[in-house]
Specification:
The protein is mainly β. It is built from no helices and 13 strands. Strands 3, 5, 6, 8, 9, 10 and 13 form a seven-stranded mixed β-sheet that branches. It has a four-stranded antiparallel β-sheet with strand order 2-1-4-7, with no helix packed on it. Strands 11-12 form a two-stranded antiparallel ribbon. GO terms for molecular function: cell adhesion molecule binding.
Length: 156
């Protein structure tokens, strides 16, 4: 059976490969096989990556590349594979509360959803370039809420 290992930037990857979103890189499948390999397959989360049948995988990493990456090699003696867990780091992406219509003096609840890896360390709310409040992020928090108890036109 072939012996298969995965390399990135000339170093063997044991379990986890951490990359930055939108970086182009090459991942190498190192193969020792006698007889030589008949086929090479790359899989992402156990799904075949079409068009990738060489010992090098070229990728411009995105969030969709996260998960299990496998190089599978076959020869007449058998099948072997090596897998790594790919983690993609990416800057925060925010989704804010859409336009809200309310009467003067009513309570205004604003919500900001955050998608980031690594997770955020603080959330800062601003109004016309003036910081209103800075809140720490907990490890499982993916949103922040800011409430104005009694909103008036100057808050718009």
């Amino acid at each position: 059976k072939p012996i298969v290992n995965i390399f990135w930037k000339t170093k063997q990857v044991q379990r986890t490969l951490t990359v930055i979103e939108n970086t182009y890189d090459i991942i190498q499948c190192s193969i020792i096989a006698n007889p030589s390999q008949n086929s090479i397959e790359w899989l992402r989360n156990d799904q075949l990556i079409n068009g990738q049948n060489q010992d090098q995988l070229y990728s411009n990493f995105t969030q969709s590349d996260e998960g299990k990456l496998t190089c599978r090699v076959r020869n007449t003696a058998g099948i072997s594979e090596a897998s790594v867990n790919v983690i993609v780091l990416y800057k925060p992406k925010l989704s804010l509360t859409p336009k809200i219509i309310l009467n003067q003096g009513e309570r205004l609840n604003l919500k900001c959803s955050i998608n980031a890896n690594p997770s955020c360390h603080s959330i800062r709310w601003f109004h016309f370039d003036q910081e209103l409040i800075s809140l720490p992020c907990s490890t499982n928090q993916n949103f922040s809420e800011y409430t104005i108890p009694s909103a008036y036109r100057l808050h718009s």
